[in-house]
Structures are given as structure tokens and as C-alpha cells.
């Protein structure tokens, strides 16, 4: 694994950690749905995750991340079709999928 690849993976982990911090005091969807600042912060970090994955795929095609195409596609929606983002979808990503992505990258032992 190249140093550049490790950097992208590290960027993803950092973004996930930030999302976890941003939402730690927002345990319910209704709170998230009414908190524009948290929504904005989370969406920024999700965009970073998607961009880092996109760059990782180009830098090192041998590294496989489950659902990378869907994550990159969601990043593109966040950036280019921001007005079609549904907060319930973002919430589901936070609650159901980010932990899996974090575990997958942690298991790569990038340190």
C-alpha cells in the first residue's frame, strides 16, 4: 500500500470520527433534522469520504472497499445535486453504514 493510499484511508477515518463527534449529542433523527449546522458539518465530511475513496480507487485499484461506488455516487449527489438530499437517507448512512466502513478500514492496518 502506498503512502498516498494510506493518507486517503486516514482521511476517511478522520471524517468518520468527526461525523461521530458531530452527532454524538444528536441521538434522534428529529434532532438531526432540525439542526442545520450538524447537517452541514456531516454532509461536508461525507463529501470528503467520497472524494477520498474516489482518489484512492485511482491511486491504488488493488484496494477494495465494499460499496465504494455507492459512496462515491452519494458524494456526487451531495456536491452536484445538493437540493435532492433527503436527511433521512443521510441519517441512515450515519447509523447503518459508517461503522462498517470504519471497521473495514481499521482492519487494513494502515498504521
Kindly describe this structure.
The protein has 111 residues and is mostly helical. It contains five helices and no strands. α1 runs antiparallel to α3. The radius of gyration is 14 Å and the shape is globular.
Distance between the termini: 11 Å
Strand content: under 5%
Helix and strand element order: HHHHH
The total of beta strands comes to 0
Oligomer: single chain
Number of helices: 5
Q: What is the typical, i.e. mean, pLDDT?
A: 92
| Percentage of residues in helical conformation | over 70%
Q: Low-confidence parts lasting 5 or more residues at pLDDT below 50?
A: none
Salient structural properties:
single chain; 111 residues; mainly alpha
Summarize the structure.
The protein has 111 residues and is mainly α. It contains 5 helices and no strands.
Question: What's the topology here?
Answer:
Elements: H1 3-23, H2 29-33, H3 36-59, H4 68-80, H5 87-106
Helix pairs in contact: 1-3, 1-5, 3-4
Amino acid at each position: 500500500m502506498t503512502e498516498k493510499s494510506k493518507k486517503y484511508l486516514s482521511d476517511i477515518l478522520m471524517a468518520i470520527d468527526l461525523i461521530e463527534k458531530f452527532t454524538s449529542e444528536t441521538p434522534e433523527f428529529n434532532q438531526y433534522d432540525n439542526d442545520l449546522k450538524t447537517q452541514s458539518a456531516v454532509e461536508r465530511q461525507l463529501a470528503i469520504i467520497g472524494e477520498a475513496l474516489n482518489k484512492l480507487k485511482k491511486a491504488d485499484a488493488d484496494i477494495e472497499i465494499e460499496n465504494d461506488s455507492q459512496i462515491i455516487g452519494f458524494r456526487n449527489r451531495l456536491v452536484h445535486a445538493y437540493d435532492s438530499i433527503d436527511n433521512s437517507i443521510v441519517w441512515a448512512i450515519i447509523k447503518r453504514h459508517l461503522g462498517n466502513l470504519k471497521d473495514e478500514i481499521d482492519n487494513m492496518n494502515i498504521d
